[in-house]
Amino acid sequence: MEIYKIIDELHLNLGCRIQEFEGGAGLPTSYSDRLAEEINLLLHGCGLFDLKACWLIALKGIDAGTFLQGMVTSDVLQLEVGEIQSSLICSNKGKIIHHLEIFRSEKDEWIVICDPGEGQAVGTILDNFHIREDLELRLLNSGEMLRIDLSGPDAEKIAEKLGYFRDKIKWTFEGELVLTAKFNLGKLPRLINLVYAGVLQKFIEQILQNEKADLIGLEAFDEMRCLEGVPRSGVDYGKDNFPQEAGLGDHISFDKGCYIGQEPHARMYHRGHPNWISVWLSVPENSKATSGALLFHAGKEIGKITSLGSFSKDSVFRGIAMIRHEAAKEKTLLSLSVDEPAEIVHEPLPSIIV
């Protein structure tokens, strides 16, 4: 779509690298020499993250909720209108296939927000399982709505200048509908906005007129999620992992009943434990640790670092690692080799499944 090229030009003018996904939608990944500025915006102002590459699949109808309830790991029927939750589509053996965010936009409508590059696959799964249910599947990206996130302490205040009301999910900008859900990244305030494509350019331009607002990319987002202990699909966990291994306690309900993958999840939850588990790291700022580095404990390799931030806070870098369950249970320090001192602290992720 033409709007993709227009918005991407804003990023390119700042020296941004853009990764192209389905339909030609670009995702800003990193800008040249402005990461510190982006992090400062997220901590003290408002960062605008262009996520138009996320497919938005609406399910609407009297059977939409019950159909989706059987497809994903979270309890979508417990969502109030205006609420959003993280979720997963898993295989019948319980392993993760897709990470999702699910937004209940109306009493009988849920919007499935897909990760960049996964929309077509998610849509195919939903369409293949949809047989007789009274519901309509609709792709909002095809000229209807696109996703723009505002993150940071000033996000709501800046959105209010455009017409947003804090107690409403639906509002209008330039006469067109905007859907907004509060969905913090850890403790970082965040608004997920679904904006009509025809006014998206003006929406972004007006946000950027604010002194304490500017564009951010995936690199800055990754820095903040490391600080907040939030794992990312395709980086900290993948299709070989169970939700329990990835510490995705806020993605799964063990009380809602049947869904694809529910039986192995329930068995592991009630009778066992995963072999691996994601943990939150504190790494001394003078460490030589890098993302992908192996971790050791008691002379044995016990896992590896999957994400590591470069922003130092209180003289440590925060990161995420996947390590053996036995090592995760112990309050011990980890090292980068059998010969190096153990100085890396690990702790449970905020969303660990217990």
UniProtKB/TrEMBL annotation:
<dbReference type="InterPro" id="IPR045179">
    <property type="entry name" value="YgfZ/GcvT"/>
</dbReference>
<protein>
    <recommendedName>
        <fullName>GCVT N-terminal domain-containing protein</fullName>
    </recommendedName>
</protein>
<dbReference type="InterPro" id="IPR017703">
    <property type="entry name" value="YgfZ/GCV_T_CS"/>
</dbReference>
<keyword id="KW-0809">Transit peptide</keyword>
<dbReference type="Pfam" id="PF01571">
    <property type="entry name" value="GCV_T"/>
</dbReference>
<dbReference type="InterPro" id="IPR027266">
    <property type="entry name" value="TrmE/GcvT-like"/>
</dbReference>
<feature type="domain" description="GCVT N-terminal">
    <location>
        <begin position="9"/>
        <end position="163"/>
    </location>
</feature>
<dbReference type="GO" id="GO:0016226">
    <property type="term" value="P:iron-sulfur cluster assembly"/>
</dbReference>
<dbReference type="InterPro" id="IPR006222">
    <property type="entry name" value="GCVT_N"/>
</dbReference>
